[in-house]
Amino acid sequence: MIKYFIYCRKSSEDEDRQMLSIDAQLSELKAIAVQNGCAVVETFTESMSAKGPGRPIFNEMLARIDRGEANAILAWKLDRIARNFDDGGKVIGMLQRGQIQEIRTFEKTYLPSDNVLMIAVELGMANQYVRDLSVNIQRGIRERVRRGIFYGKAPLGYMNEPTLRTIEPHSEDFPKLKRILEEFAEGKYSMTGILREMTRVGLVGGQMRRGLRLSSVSNMLQNPFYYGAFYHKGVLHQGSHVPMVSKKTWDEIQRARVAVAKPRQRRGDKGLEFLNFATCGSCGHCITGERHTKKSGLRFYYYRCTHKNAKRGCQSTTFIRQEKVAEEVKRNVRLVSLPDEWKERFLAKVETWEAEDSTAKQTQLERLRGEQGALRVKIDRLNAAFTDCSIDLAEFKELKNPLVSRKVELEAQIASLEKTRANRVEPVRNWILEANHGGKLLSDENFGEMKLFLRKVGLNRVFRDQTLTVSFIKPWDSLAQTVESSFADNEFPHGSEKWWR
Ligand SMILES: [Zn+2]
Description:
- By secondary structure, the chain is an alpha/beta fold.
- The strands form 5 sheets. The chain has a 5-stranded mixed sheet, with helices on both faces. It has a 3-stranded mixed sheet with strand order 10-14-15.
- A hairpin with a 2-residue loop joins β8 (229-232) and β9 (235-238).
- 50% of the residues lie in helices and 14% in strands.
- The protein contains 16 helices and 15 strands.
- Among the domains are: 3-134, Rossmann fold (3-Layer(aba) Sandwich), CATH 3.40.50.1390; 158-260, Putative Large Serine Recombinase, Chain B, Domain 2 (Hect, E3 ligase catalytic domain fold, Alpha-Beta Complex), CATH 3.90.1750; 340-426.
- The structure holds zinc ion.
- Residues 280, 282-283, 285, 305, 307, 314, 316 line the site of zinc ion (ZN).
């Protein structure tokens, strides 16, 4: 007697999008069972990817087959059962040993006697398909980023264009936000002021269309997307989307933002510049500040771990003086600052690259245009031969089709070359200027900006034994290493082109 388990699965993964819903799978399978008189013992449903092993309900089902509660599986398709070698192998083993006597899908029935190899192939293909898919998606994202298309949800004022999958200005929000940003750059609003104005004109975030929070407005104002660039994995890319404001206006927005963003000052916080800035190297909790006033009226500012992490005992018992924190902040900013002399040399180098780049492009364009012209002549000649009947239709097609597809390819190459002209070096140039700006902050002793700068170029700031360590992100990490190693000899590093590429 064959006893069936029905197994239905669907996940939110991309490759599962086209799959029937669990309910639909279930009703189809029940109909199949009725039609074929299959005895169904129990039904299992699971909302989970089968990319890797570790599905609890699937494992429970196999365990129960192992105990003899059923000896056949009814599933919509084979890839519902497994998409990885671990689970697929288990199922095949059970089928070979006869613990599973049949796997029935809506299109096929798999039996121990015949189709084991077939199943292996089909599961293997499913596995490979999954791997290819994720590689392809990654490649697709990289390619899109390279072409300057931001990957992700469109920022406020823009929309994701569904068919071309580009990011386009939102017909209503774009002009509204543009006006507000430009007014903000002129210093017209405080942070709450800009938020109020945005809410007033109906600029709200998210699908729920709820009002924005101050922190998201602050993030929005710092998003380089609005002047035409974007970050992908910490690297700034030149975007191909329509910018909302110029780079100059955007820089003014940053200045206005810093000017109005007064540090939150609670009572008693006055003078404590580095609250909520670093974490403790021993326990990972926040570093807090304290003020002590001596009888003489002298004030001292100290920082220490809040000791709030009960799970991980904290070994740090020392206090750090504010002067020491300031010194450490400056040391870290110096690590990611490009000295003026380097800046000049690098900018000069970028200029030569730009020139080389455009000559190389020009040569390439000329070559492509040459080929395009030659192709056009060939196609014309073929057309003429066909119309005066010296070749027949089959011959004509065979000769012409490859020429036409090459022509389309050429046109696309030429168009993209013309479009991307000189855009490649722009992010590098911006980065050089930004890194050089760090030096300016140092000489101004502008700690507010230095804190922002360090937050931007690093992931976290950890204090351990009186030393502040910042985990710099790319490409700042390489700069930090180079600067550190050149502190000793104070020389311009030779062969430095390697690291800042
Ligand atoms: Zn601690």
